[in-house]
Fold this sequence. Notes:
Elements: E1 6-15, E2 21-31, E3 37-41, E4 57-60, E5 65-69, E6 71-77, H1 92-105, H2 110-126, E7 129-135, H3 140-153, E8 156-160, E9 162-163, H4 177-194, E10 201-203, E11 206-207, H5 215-228, E12 232-236, H6 240-249, H7 256-262, E13 270-274, H8 280-289, E14 292-295, H9 297-302, H10 310-315, E15 319-322, H11 334-352, H12 360-374, E16 392-396, E17 398-399, E18 414-415, H13 421-431, E19 437-442, E20 445-449
Parallel strand pairs: 1-4, 6-7, 7-8, 8-10, 9-11, 12-13, 13-14, 14-15, 17-18
Antiparallel strand pairs: 1-2, 2-3, 5-16, 16-19, 19-20
Bound molecules: zinc ion (ZN).
Amino acid sequence: MSLEKTVYIGTFIHCQSLTELDIVDNGAVGVDEQGKIAFVHRDRHATSLEQGWKSAKIVDSLKHGFFFPGFIDTHIHASQYPNAGVFGKSTLLDWLNTYTFPLESSFNALDKAARIYNRVVARTLSHGTTTACYYATVHVPATILLADICHSKGQRAFVGRVCMDRLSPEWYRDESVEAAMDATKKCIEHIENIDPDFHLITPIITPRFAPSCTDECLIAQGRLVQETGLPCQTHISENKAECQLVQEMFPESKSYTEVYDSTGLLTNRTILAHAVHLTPEERALIKLRQAKISHCPASNTALTSGTAKVRTLLNEGLTVGLGTDISGGYTSSLLAEAREAIFVSRHNAMTEGDGAKLSVEEALYLATRGGAKVVGLEDRIGGFEVGKDWDAQMVMLNPVGKDEDLDQSVGLVDVFGGESWSEKVEKWVYTGDDRNTMAVWVKGRLVHDRERVRS
Ligand SMILES: [Zn+2]
């Protein structure tokens, strides 16, 4: 699909490193017909030197707005969206039986799947999530439908059919290893048909977690991972009772991580969600295999799974992004998840010292560049550089004062005129929500528009 050449002007903010933001307050970014960034100028007037851009469309962030890279949600169960906010006092293993399996099993009804998947993709886009790593359910038609919906709505997505042949009720699991592999391959083939080069949608091999799969099932999926080179996503070391269960179910394995490693599932394209209770040896093995970690603080708190030690993971050189983990997590907003990551780190700091604290800049890094590395797309998304895709959101703040030019409809981020840009970003992270996300683009295509984009 060819797009209109567009020059975005105004304030651009992205993460320069884990700890620093790069803020350009009068810049310009040119995005070509393929949705790629063709030029970046720190002074918007330099645009006049560019050949062939005179008639390009202009999109201005205006005085109180800024462009920020789209968020990357590295772990979300699309099928569990109706349960967001519903978890009672459960913990992981009883939560699965009480809330999750009954809901997921109902996705054999395609009309219900369509209603839920359309909404979760629209909702995450409205929160500025330009890339999502989705778990669907065991059902092939519904998983295919999720891939189609992401493709048509324009969200970059990794879509995985959940593979599991034990632990869940008999009426909601794969009947055999053969049936499981056949179903997963059908979903992969469908995505290869709709997006042969995986420009937008990528299949991802998705064993639910070790206890849900027999040894044979894990081995078969590991073989598929090794044969296809496709990415893989699963859960690891989320809750202590689960870790105990894994030890009992896999007595031959030295650790939870080794269950995945010994079955071929631990590669540099593997995304491990939670990673709360890993031992130093397991972290070393994950680093050796260059597997990635999705930190899901809202879920870890909601299900009282534990507080992941993100500072330790980062200090040891592991690659970390953020995941909402709907519906273990209650929020589909990665901005809210960034806030949760900051607060969980502060709880860690209360027992371990200030070094554990994550800053606003670090949380935003995990939500963008960190997530890009987790999904293996750090050359294409996560920041504003020439050659990257324009996956971005335009954030608007709410000025209060004499020259007020917006009303309260742009959310709770009231700014009074004296704030620096980094203070405005802090206010956005702590008090903002989707009302501040005015527009969202993926590969240059406008995929969410809260109000008409000013042009
Ligand atoms: Zn999960």
